[in-house]
Specification:
The structure holds two protein chains of two kinds. Chain A is of the alpha+beta class. In chain A, strand 18 and strand 19 form a beta hairpin. Chain A is globular, with a radius of gyration of 33 Å. In chain B, 66% of the residues lie in helices and 0% in strands. Classes of the chains: A alpha+beta, B mainly alpha. At the A-B interface, strand 4 and helix 2 of A face helix 1 and helix 3 of B.
Chain lengths: 565, 98
Amino acid sequence: FAVQGEKWKYTNLTWSLSSSRRPSQLDPHVTRSVLARALDVWQQASRLTFTEVNSDDADIVVSFAKRYHDDAYPFDGRGSILAHAFFPGSGRGGDAHFDDDELWLLQPKNDDEEGTSLFAVAAHEFGHSLGLSHSSVKGALMFPWYQGIQPNFVLPEDDRNGIQQMYGSKENERKWGKIPYYRPIETPPPTTTTTTTTTTTTTRRPYIHHHHNTHQGHHPNHRPYTPYPRNPNLYPKYYPEKPSSPERPSYPRPTYPDRPSYPDRTNIPTYYPERRHYNATEEHPRRNHNHYPRPTETTTQATYRPRYPQNRPEYPTYPRANSPTDPRYKPHYPVKTTARPRATPPRAPPHTTPPPDKPDACNTNFDAVALIRNELFIFKNRYHWRRGAAGHYPDYPIEITRMWTELPRNLTHVDAVYERPDRKIAIFVGKELYLFDSQNLVPGYPKRLRDLGLPESLEKLDAAMVWGHNGKTYFYSGSVYWKFDEDVGRVELDYPRDMAMWKGVGYNIDSVFQWKDGKTYFFKGRGYWKFNDLRMRVEHERQLPSAAFWMGCPTERAGRREPFR
Amino acid sequence: ARSRSARSAYHSKSVRSYLENFGYLKKGQPEMANLLLGDVAQSYEDDFRIAIKTLQEFGGIPVTGEIDEATRELIKKKRCGRPDREEGDIEGGRRKKR
């Protein structure tokens, strides 16, 4: 077995079937039951426990998707790649994605039957969710190639060793108890109660399980965290009556529910609950009220005095001495009385107010930058600047639609622009590509991004360029990029790939292009990086301000802000 | 003959893509591979053979270093989409080799 390195910090994990990406061909109810069985494989072999919750914030969120689905690992239709899962971590860490194009089987199949066992694949993927990598042991659950499933499946030894190395075994838990970082979750109180009549004067109730999850020692005066309200008189619903007989408790063990029984997340008491007042007959969920006289039916306001009366609405509040709400208030500092408010606000001088969306060249980021006919075009909102051999053209920026009139009239911005090797100009706007031969729209355009082989769900490109290093075209969006085959007119098959290839520029770039010096420049925010094509990394980790170099702005103005690092 | 060599090149490309996707070859090299000549290109060929062997060993089929029938069958099989060797493993392997 192989342990990846990441593991969960606690053993009581939650999981859910995504509410938005459910299997299109399967019954979600049965699917959840199969997923629960797959998790049980790991639960039986380790100290881990899994609770289904009805929330997309669960540790392990299971979803079904087709093709490109917002990560760098698109599915490939039926066959070949079945699913993938992410190693433990926050965000999508632990999540498992299944290819919705597969023919999933919920029951064990006959040998001649086509299809893939969801249980087998889910059990494998959950191994990744828990931190196991692929194993080269044939027959192991973590073997990467699909092997089907035997009717009486038990976790193979290789996988058992792997999971127990990470999280310990059930036997050890019985011997040594729960691990100290056991995370408290909202659990129902014990179904059996001990007698409530006690002669002892201690304030600690004997039937409460005390979690030692706080980092405080076991001190006699320390009252540990209890995850549910503790006063049976005030919260009778949490304290059911004593079972009729010990052999047959009146509260049977919970069975697998139709719907997750996990309470709504908003009802879970947190360590830092919302600020609110608790009146005399109500107990704070976790504050210990033993310091105060116990509220009884005969308790009156006069006998029960809370510690902070001024915060309670039933007590009148008075302004502090010399506070701004006091009519006798006198400020401690001299008040200037010479400055009078203007009768009318000053009017802006005429002809200098730019239209609201006209960008300030020296204080903006760029939507797109492209070298077209050996001239630099810089796009922002519905305007663009142009820089030729003699420097910046006067009277710019002008509207983009004045140059390319067949773009939409209501154009607000462009996403990416590049000049193709055949000298046609490609302008990406949202989900469409406009191709211009000089200033004329090429017949058949605009085309949709999906016609270029890009995913249907892609809303826009961030940038596009012809990379001077190999003459190939690249598209960028979010955390991924594609190589585009200009001859075929589609992106190549084994893309998208992660942006990590372009080391140092990160995700969500604004633009990229190749300048006259043959170098590649990436833009993001108000800065840019020069890229070393041979070393495949940025030449300077710290960004340089775009405005100073590309717009000819004075450095003291352009460099005022700390550049992005 | 040309058709056969084109088919072989296609197979080689798809196998390379498979090796990259599942962590046997470092990703991103195609961006530069077409520019490389001489010793560097030879080094890429060596890496490719090593990757094939590693795949064969991992998949439990005879280790030949060639794209043989068993390797093609293995590549066609249904599988998990996670790489068999994580990125750190490849980096580590390279450092060790040097």
